[in-house]
Amino acid sequence: MIGSIFENLYIALQGIAANRLRAALTTLGVLIGVASVILLLAVGNGSSQQIQQSINQLGTNFLTISPGTNGFGALAATLGIGGRFAARIGTRSSSQDLTMADVTALENRKQAPEIKSVAPVVNASVTCAIGDYSYSPSSFVGTTPAYQQARGYSMAAGQFISSQDVTDRLPVIDIGQTVAAELFPGQNPVGQSLQCGRTTLQVIGLFNTKGTNGADNLDSIIVAPLTTVQAELSGFGSLSSITIQAINSASINAAQAEATEILMQAQGITSISNIDFSIANQASLLTTSTSTSKTFTALLGAVAAISLLVGGIGVMNIMLVTVTERTREIGIRKAVGATRGAIMIQFLTEAIVLSVIGGGLGVVAAISGSHFMIDGVKPVIETWSVFMAFGVAVLIGLFFGAYPASRASKLNPIEALRYE
């Protein structure tokens, strides 16, 4: 049994070696198919992980409440995913401002047991300068200490603003890595001062790197005490937004329901249709983006499978040519006692060997290609996709080699011997 297997492999390799160029072109088709399947699935998987990482960088257990209808759509656009994923709670033609009274209401633990912390947010647009350097950060945020944990900012040096800083309206700030690189190149920014507008602010903390979330640089940020920003930059008006941190990711929907009910009561809204604020739910965005990414990955895999199918057709075509060219050989083998099964196995083995060689080279090509960025995405190969693509390549060799092998086994030995 083992001897016959090795004999068939030896004959198959001899047949392949006799037509090297043709065999190389055939295996190239399988190689491209296998590599395409693995790489495109890897691109889809890498893209999915990038999106999830972008969302996780912002946190999956916090909500952003914005006045009117801008909250979730703006957040989705910032993530580079699109406003169609915005899950607005409701809209109204005229919106009511968010105030510190709303923050106080949301901080009531009896009414909102699923809410861990609440951070009011005021945004400002300002250019900061020191010496010959000036820079306008993407975000200049006035807030409270609760903002740090809710948004997942950790400190590389110094400390985050404190409750005392907010109470005393101290002119202190924390800055992101991009701000530090632009204004303090090669220096330790902690302890130094910046001129932001007409206000001098002292740097008391430097954030660790957070990277980007697709469209926005999370390291291009300056955070200051809420009262300082209101007093020096924005004025004591309404809040830009309110950031809520849920107890954990599992309680995010319950926290959203509590926040909705509390704000409706605080603002005297009695009907869902009259809600004039929007709430961005990160967990819902993560679920939606994951589902979309899976669909996208499946589509890429289906497209790549077409090239693998084409490679299989190439195997069948070459094997049909091989059978025709070796008709006399088949006649001789049958004349000396070779059975139909032996002839069929011989040509099936040759087709499978071609597919195995092409599939193996395709796996190597895919793994090599995964080390390069493809359209801004780092491919992430999953082990199952390698085995699947290689296995399908072998099955394709078996399937598309079956007809030529069957045709060879059915040849009449007398007619085969007469074939020229």
Give Rg in angstroms.
Answer: 33 Å
Overall pLDDT score: 79
What percentage of the residues does DSSP assign to strands (E)? 15-25%
Contiguous runs where pLDDT drops below 50 for at least 5 residues: 70-94
Question: Could you write a compact summary of the structure shown?
Answer:
It contains 14 helices and twelve strands. It has helices spanning 2-18, 20-58, 71-78, 100-106, 146-151, 163-168, 177-183, 226-234, 252-266, 282-325, 327-335, 340-369, 383-409, 413-418; strands at 62-67, 115-124, 128-130, 133-135, 139-143, 155-158, 172-175, 193-196, 199-207, 221-225, 241-246, 277-281.
Tell me what you see in this structure.
About 6% of the residues have low confidence. Helix 2 packs antiparallel against helix 13. Strands 1, 2, 3, 4, 5, 6, 7, 8, 9, 10, 11 and 12 form a 12-stranded mixed β-sheet that branches. The protein contains 14 helices and 12 strands. The chain is α+β, with helices and mostly antiparallel strands and 420 residues long. The longest helix is centred in the last third of the chain and has 44 residues.
Per-chain topology:
Blueprint: H1 2-18, H2 20-58, E1 62-67, H3 71-78, H4 100-106, E2 115-124, E3 128-130, E4 133-135, E5 139-143, H5 146-151, E6 155-158, H6 163-168, E7 172-175, H7 177-183, E8 193-196, E9 199-207, E10 221-225, H8 226-234, E11 241-246, H9 252-266, E12 277-281, H10 282-325, H11 327-335, H12 340-369, H13 383-409, H14 413-418
Parallel strand pairs: 5-10, 7-9
Antiparallel strand pairs: 1-11, 1-12, 2-5, 2-11, 3-4, 3-8, 6-9, 7-10, 8-9
